[in-house]
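Figure S7 source data.
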Amino acid sequence: MKIARYTVGGQVGYGVVEELGPDGEPTDQTYLAALASHPFGELATTGIRHPYADVRLLAPVLPSKIIAIGKNYADHAAEMGGEVPAQPIVFLKPSTAVVGPRDRIARPRQSSRVEHEAELAVVIGALATDVPAERAGSVILGATVANDVTARDLQRSDGQWGRAKGFDTFCPVGPWVETGLDLADPATDLEVTCTVNGEVRQSGRTSDLTFGVAWLVEYLSSVMTLLPGDLILTGTPAGVGPLVAGDTVSCAVEGVGRLTNGVVDRG
Ligand code: MG
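Tokens for the predicted magnesium ion complex:
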């Protein structure tokens, strides 16, 4: 099931995306079956259907926090000039960085090198403190796609990553949450790709994650309580590269969906 958050007629709601095309993209037949409430409890539809063309998709969740993992693919760690660390690199992106599908990424004036990072994002579905890996699946709502946009020059010069990863618009998320994948199962192997203006920049597979989803849920929930809607960005494969004004960047996760955003310069 694909659950989107959307706005139509001045109202904001959640709905189940139905009748996608065979390629997983919306068509003229696609509609949203409105949910009565948020997606973290019992799901009930209202009977109201909105044609996909009538709605604007929003970021599918409003996270209290975004926990991101650095250098979780060996090929990306290598292109950054290092190896995957023995313990994961954990950093936070602010909730104010989140934007939705089709929203624009704004390059800040403080940086001259803004880069894309396509990532599988885990959406937390229930309050989670000290959850062992074996029970990780019970606190996961589903999967979405994120772009961990990064000011690479500031990441290097600052030492800490808060500024480089934290600008407004630096966390596009969407287009929806796919609930039908067992992310906690290491056998779940999904392709992660990024194209810029139609040219493939990144292509990896989640089977190459050094620290897998279930392990990360245990590790992170032993540090901080995870809340419904929180996101875990699992890291990016090799091929990160620059974004400039006018670009269209599209991140995709197999079986989940495609997240597309334009790029502008922040005034
Ligand atoms: Mg990243």
